[in-house]
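I am writing to request your help with a piece of structural work I have in hand. Thank you for your consideration; the sequence and its tokens are set out here:
=====
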Amino acid sequence: MKKTFAILLILVLCLGISACAVDAPPAPPAPSAAVAPVPAETESVPASQLEAVQEEIAAPEPVSSSADDSYVAAGCEVLDAIYERYYPGTAGSSLSAAKYAAMLLDWYVSVKAGDAPARNSVVRETGENFAASRDLSPEAETENGVTVNFPEKLRAIWSSAISLAFGETMVLDDAGYESLCLWNASDADTLFAALYEGLGLERGEHITVYYPDNQVMYLLHADLPSYMDIDASGILYALQTAKVLPREIELLSCDTDADGVIHLDLNRTFREYISKMGTSGEALTMAALADTFLEATGAQSLRLTVEGKDLETGHAIYDFPLTFDDSFTK
């Protein structure tokens, strides 16, 4: 059973890689005409094959050492495709990034049947094997002189995976990819932490964002790559990406005083949004906002206002500084 599943998984990943963009992303402009274009892509994976693999993944068996090589090979197949065929900023690259990200997440969750240490060991081994066979430096070039910059590519895939895991999955419909598994932000966070470790790459600037679990009982956290300065705007964007706050909430002002207190002023949409929540939802959202800002900035506390006035929600009046609260964190 394990061997059959591993073979099917590798087959569908390889086929999926062949269909990894709606339009094949062209290679970036090269200094000479000798640069070869990125290979054209082929037809999509047949629905019957997707369904067959979905049935296998729906009832996975524990990972065993005999299956590790198959999982490692499948993961390396996706990384190879990213290395050779994905170019950020080219036509269709956002769709391709979403597909590659979903493939890695599908692969990771399919390995997830074992305990966490064993699962992450497979991910790290995959990264180590891939790093041993490829030049992962930003200056690496193909035989035709095209700069690969794998760290930039992987960072873009990481960003896409986090967005997908927080529910931005409509892009997969546009990309023509049907995910094989269910995954969440914790899966994406653990996957890329272990993968970066195995590859021996630095993750670069990122923000740890806190967010409520689906049952609104406690806070989880995940690292999001940051493409902007880690300032109030960047932190607010991370909270919006994690669906802690809606996009309509705007930053009016933010500064930190000599005592290390952040003074954060948001528009009235924030008050309208949080006032509609129950007691638990409000408490977790306020804690998520404060913890995310305080961890990202290193400030001591956060004083939140709405259009210059103390926040009143019906449950509480927030006329005091908020400090880092780990009592909700799982």
User: Anything to note?
Assistant: DSSP finds eleven helices and seven strands in the chain. Residues 20 and 96 are 6 Å apart (CA to CA).
